[in-house]
Amino acid sequence: MSIFDKVYNTLVVEGNELTAKQMANFFGTTPATIVASIADLRNSGNAVYANRKTNSKGVTRTFYRVGTPTKAVVAAGYKALRQARAVA
Q1: Number of folded domains in the chain?
Q2: pTM of the model
Q3: Cα separation of 14 and 40, whole Å?
């Protein structure tokens, strides 16, 4: 199974919220590879959110999760598609 498939299953299918470092350690790869897979997930139409959380020691980490986009985000996407078609 590819790293993309593993990230997809973890975020989309299982609904987990994890950092890139956590996923990289779990899958035996680098955080950069995980971030690239997350970009691919976004490009394939998944709403992947990056939520920053600060713990009690003041350390801020970015957690990734998949969610439902707001109406405004969907509307902006459709508007961009219409504009791209008008240019082409």
Answers
A1: 1
A2: 0.81
A3: 18
State which residues form the domain around 80. 3-87
Written as six digits, the tokens of 17 are 């919220």
Residues sharing a CB contact under 8 Å with residue 73, sequence separation 6 or more, in sequence order = 47
User: Domain of 76: which CATH number?
Assistant: 1.10.10.10
Report whether 70 contacts 47 (CB < 8 A). no
Is 66 in contact with 11 (CB distance < 8 Å)?
Answer: yes
The pLDDT profile of the chain, 88 residues, written as one tens digit per residue, is: 999 999 999 999 999 999 999 999 999 999 999 999 999 999 998 999 999 999 999 999 999 999 998 999 889 989 999 998 887 6
* Phi, psi dihedrals of residue 18, rounded to the nearest 5°: -135, 160
